[in-house]
Amino acid sequence: MTKTASTSTIGVNLGFLEFLALIFITLKLTGYIGWSWWWVLLPIWGQIVIFIIAFVVIVIYAAGKDTPSARRRKP
Q: How many domains does the structure of the chain reveal?
């Protein structure tokens, strides 16, 4: 009886902003840039802000669909 070893791979999918944040953090820790930590971590905060803006736009759009005037216009 032959045993086969199962291999598992752990993949990390980094988007552009995560990759950029890792580069900035590395440069900051090695002393190549003297930026404030606010600027270094800006790509991470940018993702959160984009998500919040998208969420607010979707909520406003969904709320506008359920108004009484929108229901009267339907045939």
A: 1
